[in-house]
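User: I'm writing a short report section on ligand binding and want a predicted complex to refer to. Could you take this sequence and iron/sulfur cluster and write out the structure as tokens? A short remark afterwards would be nice.
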Amino acid sequence: MASQSRTALVEDLMERFPQVPREAVIKEDLLRGGMAFDESALSGTADGSSGDVKPKSYFIFSFDHRTLPELGAAALNRPPEEIVLTGGAYGLRRTVVSVRVNPESPYIVRAGEDGALGLYLDGARIADVGLPPMPDYYRHTLENGKSVMEVAPTIQWGYLVYLTVFRVCQYFGAKEECQYCDINHNWRQHKAAGRPYTGVKPVEEVLEALEIIDRYDTTHASQAYTLTGGSITSHIGGRDEADFYGHYAKAIEERFPGRWIGKVVAQALPRDDVQRFHDYGIRIYHPNFEVWDQRLFELFCPGKERYVGRDEWHRRILESTEVFGARNVIPNFVAGVEMAQPFGFATVNEAIDSTAEGLRFFMSHGVVPRFTTWCPEPTTPLGKANPQGAPLEYHIRLLETYRATLEEYGLASPPGYGPPGPGRAVFSVSSFMDSLPEGTEAAEGTDAPERTGSTLA
Ligand code: SF4
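Assistant: Sure. The structure tokens for the complex follow:
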């Protein structure tokens, strides 16, 4: 009975929100609740350099619904980084979905009798599944034997090199860690499993891995890099946060000038620090605001509240537009945590109203936020208390609200995310890019004016 209702839920939402692409409804449901893998659909590699399928790299958080010891075969024999859905009962256009493993999910990826992989919901095949091929650059290792996947994994079907150069966060423990974040746990579980998982990545290793990617990425699929990791409240190797993340950008830009669009995900820092990011060659700045509501920000992001404070965080986001240009400041929020109990909003209406207020605040200043769909990881306080995540209806209505607000302010989809539009988007950890119409992007990686005149009409 319960398993029947998931299909009914999905189809009901597709019917009630026809303006949201069907692809996005399935994608959001997979992102919020995860997918199970039959052994026939695992990547066939444990270390990331063998096999034919590009494996899940655990690029920053676990993004799984179970810990590694609980994942069984999927822990020993990695699942793919992403899957691509097409066709099936809902006639899906090409949809790239980041893999979040949940052995209890009603969605299962497995081979059918003909050997072709499919996505099954409640036992019925609903889409064809493609797996990402192992990229040539993953087959090569660094001089010291480390894999490219460990040092410079790529996601979004190869578009983005994800450089988590600091694998832990200096906000540590219940009183400081963001309540939905498992960065520190993820580091511990990979160490405990004996996997290579470098805490601080040496610049030389990053450059060597990028050299390999540059050499073997002959189709130039890889177009951007993100420098990120945990927050730095003191120093690492004598460097504060701006200098620590910035010095990687400087080295990359000196070695590969303009090869990739440089992005950094960091705290909302004072103007001088933000200027240093820009001077180092970063072109897109992600000072994530996480959750809009004041009470929830204080409860869910206690470290950020204590060290910086919500109002100052927002002030710095707007101030950083003077350095980067408004359209190159793209703060993220974690879509769904607004509804995490016991503190979150009780109804979808309230949660959407609050988030819409935040979108309007930023978009009225020409700043286009983006979001990742919350994955309720089991070792986080919010994931533990809310293993089902947020209601699917919240995610669908958020897509609708996001697009409407973007249109209202005449803004383009943010740069550095690849193309928008169903069937074209590659951004894999939320379907906001799948839900925008084609042709709504501005040129990438430039300091062009933030307002484009509406191409969304
Ligand atoms: S600042 Fe919060 S979300 Fe970011 S890594 Fe630290 S604990 Fe996680």
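A remark for your report: The domain at 137-408 is CATH 3.20.20.70 (TIM Barrel). The radius of gyration is 20 Å.
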